[in-house]
Amino acid sequence: MRISAGHMSGVRRFTMPGLFMVLGLLAIIVAGCGSASSGSVRPDSQQILRIPLNAASSDIKTMDPALNQDFYSYFPIELVFPGLMTLDANGQPQPWAAASAPAFDQSNNTYTFKVRSGIKWTDGTPIDANTFAYSINRALSPCTASAVTYYLYPVKDAQAFSTEKCGSDGVSVVGPIKSLIGDSLMVPDSQTLVIKLGAPAPYFLQALCYPTSYAQPQQLIQQYGVKAWTEHLAGFGGNLFKVQSWDHKGDVILERNDDFWGTKPKLREVDFKVYKTTNALYADYLDGRLDQGIPPADQYKQAKARKDFHEQPYLAINYYQPNWAKAPFNNLDARQAFAEAIDKTIIANNILQGSVVPTNHIVPQGMYGYNPNLTGPDGTTSLTGNQTAAKAAMAKYVAEACSGQITKCTPVTLYDTSDPQVETGDQAVVNMWQNAFPGYPIKTQFLDFNSLLTLIYSANAPQIFGIGWTADYPDPQDWLTLQFAPTSINNTGSVNVPQANTLMAQADVNLDPASRASEYNQAEQLEVNAVAWIPMSQAKTSYNLATYVHNFAFDSLGTIPLANWQTIYLTQS
After folding, report:
1. How sure is the predictor about 29, in pLDDT bands with cuts at 50, 70 and 90?
2. 501 lies in some domain
3. Is residue 184 part of a domain?
4. Could you tell me which of 410, 424, 265, 214 has the C-alpha nearest to residue 327?
């Protein structure tokens, strides 16, 4: 999921920041952020929370759960569309639309879910086992053309089905597998859903908490079409909130869903405001136009000194993705040279003012599978770069690929999001590259986040780009297999390390936590050695919060658990 804008951003995975975490800590929730109530509770008509989405764009990318691949769209989607399961504050799956935890039959590799009775969309249409079977099948259908089908690949025949062809009618599937319903998705009655897996998947219930398995309204999709239905969401929902409006100009407004089956939220309304830059966002917070603020890196220290500042661990990595399919990054020497020329401590501490923590890791510190003994591509734990190794690797590449003349090497363009603090960080990195490799032609190109996201998933992905990844669930499979398996849609860098592929495949089905972690550790080290990513920093969730906001709490995934959304409220002061 959660790709975020501006890997150089100095704040939470609304943008991405660094982090210090105690090993083994999966989540810290700051319960009741905003301190104890210092004033009377606002009347219901004033229970309106105004929070930002720092998406480096003018709009969120989608409201379709089947298509959600970015961090910012996730926030309104999770509040409008219910899932069978949801992650709690510790990143563990808990029943949501499911009446209880599913029964697992290990001999048949099946999960049996009982769906709560009486759940419905705001138009009165029931949400039941048929709804979830339809939704999972739709998310995987080639006619939906989702870029995030891989979350559901543990389902039997899911990957084969998702790679079939879509018929000319845009709905029917052409190929041996016409539908997973009746195959690996079975509905013995309206309140029972049976999901059959193709192989053991220890992470499956966590992955099922991702939006691709959320309930999707078949009635709207059939009425308005697979692409246009999200333009008809006004007044519609099936979870804690329903959509009031989505104007595509930066405002997504949700209102409480009084038909919600459980404890209704105390908030009457949530107003999401999309921002192109962190500076504009924070200025609005300081001026009182937002209830939560995200400080840009150059204001991080001042923000941290304020009484309304909060900071906590965050499972997020900011990184550069070299494209192995394009020169010069199709060459290991070139990749290692570019990676080893960067002093990550200067970027983290001087450019981003300590708002991030430099790292060589792909799997973040603070979660299962973190490898404390991991080394960088130069074989050391140094975060200051290795100029000698970088220059030697580049000299070798120039001799072999550029006829001995660095100015004849394939020019490099670094793509990233158009946020001033991102641009400042990127330029500092480019300066390091140019100082290490005088004469090498390097430039930058900045786009709004949605445009960058579209580009990196296209057939013409950039040579190298800056981006961020936040844990969808605290399991190494989310960080390794989803990023680097040759068949993964998210392998946007065309990475292929055969030995690591084997280790990841073994770990994905390994039910023993200790040996599984070891296999992932080995795979990660191989990916780092081969420069699958150039990891830059691990993030912090850093933000300011108005003191009249209560029970507002982020988890280590940078999201707000649904149980917390039920308890947030505002006082007069």
Report:
1. very low
2. no
3. yes
4. 410
